[in-house]
Structure formats: structure tokens, C-alpha cells
Amino acid sequence: MNINAAKAALAHLELDDNPASIRSKSRDFFWYSPVLKARLDHVVADFVVSPRDEAEVIEVLKTCYAHDVPVTVRGAGTGNYGQAMPLAGGCVMHLKNMNQIRAIAPGRVVAEPGIVIRDLDAQTRAQSGQELRMMPSTAATATLGGFIAGGSGGVGSVRWGALRDLGNIIRLRVVSMEAEPQIHEFTGEELHRVSHAYGTNGIITEIEMPLAPAYDWVSTVLTFPGFAEAARFGAELAAEDGILVKLVTVCEAPIAAQYFQRFKGHVDEGDNTLHLMVAPQSMPALETFLARWPAGKMIFRSDAHDWSRDPGVAYEYGWNHTTLRALKVDPDITYLQVRYHGADFLEVIEAVRARFGAELMQHLEVMREHGQVIYAGLTMVRFTTEERLEEIVREHEEMGAMIFNPHRYTLEEGGRQSADARQLAFKREADPKGLLNPGKMIAWDVPDWGYETIYAYAGMRAAE
Ligand code: FAD
């Protein structure tokens, strides 16, 4: 790895070698996990470069290839798994300057990867009355490229499913890391080569996404005295095809009372809460539906309320924002990502609650999967030790609740514990030296890895 030669060759680009800023651009939200915090805190790149267009991306890749310098691409660094952290050092390629929209048409938008999702939505709304079908709850800071390469779904998934579902990404333009970088245009099955691949096998330089009609979504909060009923309400509301919702979040008591500062005085320790985004024209139907559930109460609606402090948009209480709010109050909280599907998913959730009691607090998000309503759990855990966390994971799996482990930094361990043949095959073609985001794809490093223990990337730079 010849860092100095690469830096000299790229000196005419926007290059940052200030140690404090390199350190901050080498980090993401990995610290959500005490397991990752213990392993990745020291990780730092050698320099940061911010290309302005695809030609400069190609120049960076070609130069780093020639000098054997690893390249880890960065959107906004809001990922939770250390995805954007340069384990082997080298170059962080920051895409903040590639933030233009190229075209907006009925049902679609073409944009550069570094655009912040909220800015993209503002422009598609203003110009065409449309918005992205789904976005992470970090839309105010996260980039579109980071969402495609590192995210999975979020606000909107209640209606549209996950990012990986057919039709939720239209086209990706991707640059490879070779002596002569190649440009690829992917649609259909080929999208799976690089979507959710953590930038390990190509740099996405242009994205075409589907759009839906935009609404002034009404943020709504409901309370229920019983969690099981709140969870059933959420699932049944999402299955009401005529009621247009973009978010259905369920939080077990006492999450709202303890961690949502602006809810003080409006909720009790025993209140389980639902946080909804509802299209304005669907509010009367929501009220009708709620009237069939005598235990449920609407305590807030953003279009008509008398709270002295506005709690803000509903989605910043959902997805991983729920965990963030808890962490701000109690740093010993961590979380799990769970999938509850199958006909008996509400029973499995209740069995998990009975098994773990107060050690876990349930936080559920409704998603659609092949037309069915399911729950994703972003369960809060009162962390004690790594061993206990592992036990909790194992017990969930034994009870039929699938875990996507957020305490791992590799694609495989954070996913389905198996190699993705399409991503690996494309990496062989597009990154022959293995320089893109090294250490994140186990199948590249150790093809026969057995997943019995946490993977430790051998090429990770030691702490100084
Ligand atoms: P980064 O963190 O910078 O990058 C993510 C990954 O993508 C990295 O591996 C990076 O190398 C790679 N990458 C970035 N740009 C490119 C590119 N152009 N080409 C190839 N690879 C690239 N995620 C969800 O899916 N849904 C949620 O609702 C959600 N809520 C969150 C809430 C909180 C409070 C936090 C902290 C995180 C949440 N996340 C969520 C995770 C994360 O915020 C999102 O996935 C976000 O979209 C990542 O965007 P980013 O620009 O920050 O990407």
C-alpha cells in the first residue's frame, strides 16, 4: 500500500488529510453496539477524497488500484454496523459532492448517490408532487447511495416492502475497481449484485428510483394499555387496504414514558404507543377504525394538537430512531433486529416477551412481505455482557424469530449467515485485488467460514 504516492497523484482533487476530520469521516453509528464499539473504535483511514463527478470517482479508483490502497466509500456515515469504516485504513471516498438530481418524471427519479434523501424528497415534491416510496428514518442526513448500499427499508416499507423487493430500485450505475475501471448499468436481477453490498464490489454513481404521490403525512400517536392489543392493532391497521399509512411503529411501555422527552406529561409508564404516518384523506377512516378498539386512544395528531412542545415527525420515533432516543437517556441500552413472520407472528412476539421480561423492550415496525403484513423488531436490550447477548440471540432463533445481528460488521453475519453468490461473483470481476471496503465480505476472505464465532478480519489495522 503506497499511501503517499496515491495522495500525490490525487492532490488536485478535494483531498482531506486533517487527522481530526479523517477520524470523524472514518466512523459511523457502529457505537450503537457495545460489541462493535469494543472492536472498531480505533479504526481510521489515511486520507479522505471527495470526488465531484463520476470521472473523478474513476480517477480515484484507478489511482488507488495502482498503489494498492483500499477504498471505503462513504455517504453520510449513518450506518449502524461499521459498514462505512475503513478496517484496513487507506482511502475514504466521500460522495458528498455528488448530490445532483438528473431527472424527475412520473413515477421515477434519477439522482447522484451523495444526495441527502430529505433534499431529494423536497425537490421531487416541489417539481412533481411525488416522493420516494421508502426512506430510512435518518432521511434528514443519510444519502441515497448509502441507503441502497447499506440500508434495508424503513418509512414506507409498511406499504412497499423492503429495498431488495422487486421494483423498489429501478437502475444502478456502478463503477468497478480495476486497472481500467469499467462502468456497468444494472437492472432486474443484476441489481442484487451491488444493492446492500456495503460498497464491497463497486461504487454506485447514479441511481434510478421509483416515486409515489407525496402527501402531507399526519404524524399520529395512539396509546394502548396492553402491548399484545397494540401489536394486533398495528398489524390489522396495516392490513386495511383503504387506509393509506406510511409508518406503523409499536413501542412497548415504558419506552415512550422513559425515553421520549417531549411525551412527558402526555403518557404514563404503562402506556404502549403507536406512532403512525397517515395520509390526510385517511384520517377519518383511521378514526373510524380506532373507534372499534375501545382501549385505544389518540393522544396526538400533528394537524390539530395542543401540546406545548411539538414532538416532531412520527418517523423520528420509529425504526432506529427509537433506539437512538433510548441510548441518549440510558447508554446501556442496545438492540436486536428481529423478523417476526409466519401465520403465528403475534404469538411468537408474546412468547418472546414472556421469556425475557424486563430485560427486553419490544419495538415493532410493520412491513409488507409478498403482500402479507409482518413485523420487524428493533428490540431494545438492557445490555449486560456479550455472552448474554449471544444467548438472547440464540434463544430468539430457537423460538422461531429470525435475527439479523446488528453486532457484526460483515455482510454475512448481519444478514442470513451465508455468502451471497451474486455479490461474491461480481466482486471477483469488479474488485480483483479485494481493495473495496475490505473485511466486510467473509466469503471473499475465508470461503469456508462456519459462523460459529464472531468473524475477526485478519487485515484489520491494530490500534496504535
Ligand atoms: P453510509 O453509512 O455512509 O454507508 C452505508 C454503506 O453503504 C457503507 O458500507 C458504504 O461503504 C456504502 N456506500 C455508501 N455510498 C455508496 C455508493 N455510492 N456506492 C457503493 N456503496 C456505498 N437504515 C434503514 O435501512 N432504515 C431505517 O429506517 C434506518 N434508520 C436508522 C436510524 C438511525 C437513528 C440510525 C443511526 C441508522 C438508521 N439506519 C436505517 C441505517 C442508516 O442510517 C441508513 O441505512 C442510511 O440510509 C445509510 O446512509 P448513509 O449515507 O449514512 O450511508
Automatic annotation (TrEMBL):
Q: Where is the FAD-binding PCMH-type domain?
A: 40-214
The biological process GO terms on file are: lactate catabolic process
| UniProt keyword Signal, yes or no | no
Query: What name does UniProt use for this protein?
Result: FAD-binding oxidoreductase
Query: What are the protein's UniProt keywords?
Result: FAD, Flavoprotein
What molecular function does GO assign, one term?
D-lactate dehydrogenase (cytochrome) activity
The cross-references to InterPro entries, in alphabetical order and at most eight, read: FAD-bd_PCMH, FAD-bd_PCMH-like_sf, FAD-bd_PCMH_sub2, FAD-linked_Oxase-like_C, Oxid_FAD_bind_N
Which residue windows are coiled coil?
none
Xref: Pfam families: FAD_binding_4 (PF01565)
